[in-house]
Design goal:
Strand content: 15-25%
Largest sheet: 7 strands, mixed
Order of helices and strands: HHHHHEEHHHHHEHEHEEHEHHEE
Strand order of the largest sheet: 5-4-3-6-7-9-8
Helix content: 40-55%
Number of helices: 15
Structural class: alpha/beta
Number of strands: 9
Length: 338
């Protein structure tokens, strides 16, 4: 893999935060949603967004330079990607996930990255999800935005994995139930138990009730590393779990999953998993670095390492393949028949 050759390429990395902040600002002011019905001149966008016209024009110029919007006559219109993914209420909209979780929560935490890498986080700094989610408001903001961000991957998982013979699934660190709800809708005989922190479970139970699935999705409250798990499961799902806990917990979690899965049952691990040669994918590697900012002992998961640990725990039929292209992978394995 060739490295960078031009100063401009380094500048693109160094100035990347400016583009991110332009995107977050556009989401805050509802720019993409206002353009959902067609192109508008800057003056009309400004009036609808409550922005001074020249400041709005500056923002629209930046968004257009980034390719998020395009010029249309004297006005501006959404790019195809913005129309599909950033318009409020669109089928694949994940704007709230970007605006709330990434923009408001992850970005400030990334300021800790230097101290986290050096192992000298100051007293009072966020050092784990448990610390973070002890605050009910932070748990709410993260969980509600993550719910929106997880619906797409959940639909992808539902299409990828045949769960037609699965009656009992354990979703470890399953948040507000985006995966559980999606998988139950796709599999009428499936019942899911979600394990997550109390502040998260309270929100999740409301999402589950709204989906009409309270009889099929239940919660066990507590830290996934310490809470009791029900046994004899047909499948266990760990989505975005291993990347958010200390590395010394990984083998124990995989082994514990083996002990709680019945004969022939399946383990599904969906996470930020880099290629074994450590060349990428880029966004996967960056997300792993982001997790290190508030979980300094987090591991940079690779597909080969994960497959080896699954095998060592006793699993067979191990496969690791992309789920969200360039971002996440899905590792699947089966407990051998007794």
């Amino acid at each position: 893999m060739a490295g960078l050759t031009e100063a401009e390429e380094i500048s693109d990395i160094a100035f990347g935060y400016m583009g991110s902040r332009a995107l977050f600002a556009a989401l805050e002011f509802g720019i993409f949603t206002r353009l959902a019905d067609g192109a508008l001149p800057a003056a009309e966008i400004a009036a609808a967004s409550g922005l001074p016209e020249e400041r709005c024009r500056t923002l629209m110029t930046a968004l257009t330079a980034l390719g998020l919007t395009v010029r249309a006559g004297e006005g501006f219109a959404n790019s195809p990607a913005a129309e599909a993914f950033l318009v409020k209420g669109a089928r694949y909209d994940f704007g709230d996930y970007l605006r709330l979780q990434v923009g408001r929560q992850m970005y400030p935490l990334m300021d800790q990255i230097g101290e986290a890498l050096a192992g000298r986080l100051p007293e009072g700094a966020t050092a784990s999800y448990a610390d973070w989610f002890a605050d009910a408001e932070e748990a709410r903001l993260y969980s509600e935005s993550q719910h929106a961000g997880s619906l797409g991957p959940a639909r992808g998982l539902a299409k990828r994995v045949d769960l037609s013979g699965v009656a009992r699934m354990l979703d470890i660190g399953g948040g507000t139930g985006a995966f559980a709800i999606t998988l139950c809708r796709a599999n009428p005989d499936l019942h899911v138990t979600v394990v997550d922190f109390p502040n998260v479970a309270l929100l999740g139970e409301a999402y589950v009730a709204d989906a009409g699935l309270s009889d099929r999705i239940t919660y066990v409250t507590g830290d996934a590393l310490a809470a009791e798990w029900p046994g004899d499961q047909d499948a266990i799902l760990m989505s975005y779990l291993l990347s958010g806990v200390p590395d010394h917990a990984h083998e124990g979690l995989i082994g514990r999953a083996f002990d709680h899965i019945g004969s022939g049952g399946r383990l599904l691990v969906h996470d930020f998993i880099v290629d074994e040669d450590r060349t990428g994918p880029k966004n996967t590697a960056l997300w792993q670095l982001q997790h290190t900012a508030f979980t300094p002992e987090a591991r940079s998961l690779s597909d080969g390492w994960l497959a080896d640990r699954m095998c060592a725990a006793g699993f067979c039929g191990i496969e690791v393949e992309p789920l969200i292209p360039g971002m996440t992978k899905l590792a699947s394995a089966r407990r051998p028949d007794a």
